[in-house]
Amino acid sequence: VQLQASGGGLVQAGGSLRLSCAASGGTFSWYGLGWFRQAPGKEREIVAAVSRSGSSTYYMDSVKGRFTISRDNAKDTVYLQMNSLKPEDTAVYYCARGATALVATTTTGYNYWGQGTQVTVSS
């Protein structure tokens, strides 16, 4: 399974970005999916996750109401719409495929990872 993340970039505070993660080489639609981020000197943290069906989602507290995770199983793609971006959202963002169909909120719940895409929010 290969995951290819894209959509990162440089944006001013208050702006928006939409990250995409396309999967290939495996069964995408059977599993939960997640977006993580890692800032320099910090641990990788869960940003958002979605279940196999899309009916269950999870968001870290600091992005609730600003970020939206969604998936298109027909396209083997998961998205992260990020609005009202803040400088503290600056990080490398990673998509990941879960080990089960459920929402997982820790790195141990994922067994395939994309390469990461840089998001930089200027103040």
What labels would you give this structure?
123 residues, mainly beta, four-stranded antiparallel beta sheet, 0% helix
Task: Describe, in plain words, how this protein is organized in 3D.
The protein is mainly beta and 123 residues long. The chain is built from no helices and 11 strands. Strands 2, 4, 5, 6, 9, 10 and 11 form a 7-stranded mixed sheet that branches. Strands 1-3-8-7 form a 4-stranded antiparallel sheet, with no helix packed on it.
Task: Give the SSE map.
Layout: E1 2-6, E2 9-12, E3 17-24, E4 33-38, E5 45-50, E6 57-59, E7 67-72, E8 77-82, E9 91-98, E10 110-113, E11 117-122
**Structural class determined from secondary elements:** mainly beta
Number of strands: 11
Overall spatial form: globular
Number of helices: 0
Low-confidence spans: none
Give the helix level as a range of percent: under 10%
What is the average per-residue confidence, as pLDDT, rounded to a whole number?
A: 96
Spatial extent as radius of gyration: 13 Å
Main β-sheet description: 7 strands, mixed
Question: Termini separation (Å)?
Answer: 37 Å
Strand content: over 45%
The helix/strand series, from N terminus to C terminus, equals EEEEEEEEEEE
